[in-house]
Amino acid sequence: MTLPSRRAFATAAMAALLVGCGGHGADRATTAHRRSTPPPSPSPDKAVHALGRSVPVTLRIPAIGVDTPVIQLGLASDGSVQVPPIAAHDRAGWYRHSPTPGRIGPSVILGHVTVGTYGDGVFRHLARLRRGDRIVVRLENGTTAEFAVTSVRTVAKAEFPADAVYGDVDRPELRLITCGGSRTGDGYLDNVIVFAALSSATP
Hints:
- This protein is mostly beta strands.
- It is built from 2 helices and 8 strands; from the N terminus they run H-E-E-E-E-E-E-H-E-E.
- It has helices at 6-14, 162-166; strands at 56-61, 66-73, 92-95, 105-110, 134-139, 144-156, 172-184, 187-202.
- It has an 8-stranded mixed barrel.
């Protein structure tokens, strides 16, 4: 299995990153590109083989009641990562310059904590996740990839750990990102980042 290109992650990390918090507009935080060590992950009881490329279509997180379609996101014209649209039927978005879920590397999925006048966003309870909680991603080819949470971090937007989120890893991992912390005006001061590792896959 070929490792994902580090250039793609470096490009994203050097750009102004997300993450939109879903106020009355798509608030984006500027990311400082600094070295950061990813949090430790437990070794699985048995090796889980990496999957072939297939885009995610749905995301379920039973512990916090998430069951959402997944749309594709790229880069906005200003170089920041796109965020899902502010809408009544809020959806999560997969950053298409990251690996698809189940491939080697960090697959990145973004979601709002609030969606303006529509209220709560799809990732409103993301910070409640705990180590070992299940995250289930259904892929376009029909495969279900299941991940286990390894850690949950709340970080100041000015100190967003770009390398920990986008940097190379040697196994299939997942990152879920939203906003958190104190709210100021239409934005939030922090990001909530969930780190997870592939635990099983079924066709």
